[in-house]
């Protein structure tokens, strides 16, 4: 059975990282353990590491020691070849690859970078390595600085070379193609390649070509004067600040890089003021040329500004520095979060990743692993694009999650709050959020404010609510966001990063209300453990449910489990298993279990049952040998909030499990509550599951 894929390119700067990132994400969604390997890497000074390896291992949290993620260095390869012992290099590469193959279900292998110009052996080395590892291959070539004929001929040559050496090519990628040429290139490539070879065309993505400020600092050996925490800012266009300020600021564009002599205080201060102003686009940084540093009074003025961008002093004249920056070949580093997310979105959009992976392996996993579950969430959210409102628009975690969601392009986000405060917060955090791709609404100044207030008044006047009270309620972001859902202007809401659970849920209970036949709003967490995903309920809403409520929570949790691809096997947890226990608490769980069996005989359920008997096969078999749930429970229902909340947090902290949720269940439309201690990942994942809920899945 094949357990790997080889990614080969034909030249340097081909955009191979984009394909590796996209393919790794897809593979992790289809199997739980994917390794990464580079047969040959460049030589680095002491303390430096291969950027490709660091980026992949870090972003996807792959546990491989750096030394085991590559075969040999370029120098080792050349030395052995010069000694006539090239075969020894192949032996080392094969051994290291096989070690990873034994540890992982699948291994993504990334070929060389062609960083040494004119190296005629490099292409042949990639063919040799792929052949000796017995791996199918994807070939990548860049269309940059090539004619269409040159690109097509290059890919044809590469395909023939691999094919003639009995290396199976399953896909070819023409990367960095101008948008207007995509269809013409596709027609030419389809003429040559057989149907079983996947042909993908990826356009030129300008944001991936521009360097970060950090790359510029390293290339020019610059001295960072201000804004060191924002060195990962992504640059856009750049231009020289040589004209008068009144003319120069009109030239600024989104994420412009300002290049100006260090004694041009007017340009420096004007560009910083434009960055702060709502009337001009934000800049990414300022490069001061000539080794000149502004005088102390100007430095003091800059230091006192509320918002700052990286300001870097470099040696060299303005003309030469500008040319140097223009020639930088930008890369994707482990800290380049925006570039990584952009790469994942681009690869998902333009590469036939699902078709490619189907060619690699065909299997049914025994269990839904966390990586597979997260991948399935991402794919489900894509099926039907939904509009999610985030009331806490100035919260740092909300904004960072929004940036990630925009990059993936799978939901439409509405932020609630004052537009200027949101812009200032984005600038303070150094985030690159394109607000043209986000809806920002200030409730009180919204054209929907009066209509929403009148609707709320009509819905609640029987509770003695008057119009003044209704307007006050609609000025509250939680009430406004919930009304957006009620009126059909949004599909779901995620709140709670800065508000209490009651503040988030109360508006939903007042006018979104519960589904027919549901009397209890409850919650579940999707607990992504090392080798499985379990559903925990209720860990966030109901303090002391009675037997009927507990039964309803179990049924709702089972439905949520099925909706998200997890077969529900329900364990009604207690301090006793089976019929041995006595007492009010265990009797309540026993009664709830019987209610579920009566209402839903189709569901697999066991209760009362202890946690260890529910999840451990050996314990489950010893305590309840005839149970079809014991030892393999996927839905665990806790008897009360105290037990549930503490257990999920204990499991999360002690095992390192990812807890996705809480996801509220029972409402007519999805409103989900975050913890005030939530992380960016919590926000991101909760938005995704809210979008899926809104699809009615």
TrEMBL record:
- What keywords sit in the KW lines? Acyltransferase, Cytoplasm, Transferase
What Enzyme Commission number does this protein have?
Answer: 2.3.1.8
Question: InterPro entries, per this entry?
Answer: DRTGG, P-Actrans_bac, P-loop_NTPase, P_AcTrfase, P_AcTrfase_dom1, P_AcTrfase_dom2, Phos_Acetyltrans/Butyryltrans, PTA_PTB
Q: What is its main location?
A: cytoplasm
Please give the CDD domains that the UniProt record associates with this protein: DTBS
Which residue range or ranges hold the DRTGG domain? 215-325
Reaction it catalyzes: acetyl-CoA + phosphate = acetyl phosphate + CoA
Q: Which Gene3D superfamilies match?
A: 3.40.50.10950, HprK N-terminal domain-like, Isocitrate/Isopropylmalate dehydrogenase-like, P-loop containing nucleotide triphosphate hydrolases
GO BP:
acetyl-CoA biosynthetic process
Q: Pathway it belongs to?
A: Metabolic intermediate biosynthesis; acetyl-CoA biosynthesis; acetyl-CoA from acetate: step 2/2
Q: Where does the protein end up?
A: Cytoplasm
Similarity annotation: In the C-terminal section; belongs to the phosphate acetyltransferase and butyryltransferase family. In the N-terminal section; belongs to the CobB/CobQ family.
Q: So what does this one do?
A: Involved in acetate metabolism.
Q: What is this protein called?
A: Phosphate acetyltransferase
What organism is recorded for this protein?
Answer: Zunongwangia atlantica 22II14-10F7
